[in-house]
Amino acid sequence: MTSENPEEDVNDVLEILKNEKFLDNDIYKSGIVAIAHGNGEDENEYKVIHPGNFNEKFQL
């Protein structure tokens, strides 16, 4: 997903994860939400927003 204002739109994404089920699974508990920071190439770094205790390097 892309966004012009990812820092603002992440709250909407988190609300969807909290309130919607996917194949009867709670995706809020298992999902990772991250924002890409970088030049748009393959070498983007990601800031993980959710879960708050995620402490690994996030890569696509």
Helix-strand blueprint:
Elements: H1 6-19, E1 21-22, E2 25-26, H2 27-30, E3 33-37, E4 45-50
Antiparallel strand pairs: 1-2, 3-4
List its salient traits.
two-stranded antiparallel sheet; 25% strand; single chain; alpha+beta; 60 residues
- Binned strand content: 25-35%
Q: N-to-C terminal Cα separation, in Å?
A: 13 Å
Widest sheet: strand order?
1-2
Q: State mean pLDDT (0 to 100 scale).
A: 85
**Structural class estimated from helices and strands:** alpha+beta
Number of DSSP-assigned strands: 4
Q: What is the count of helical runs? A: 2
* Inertia-based shape: globular
**What order do the SSEs take from the amino end to the carboxyl end, as H and E?**
HEEHEE
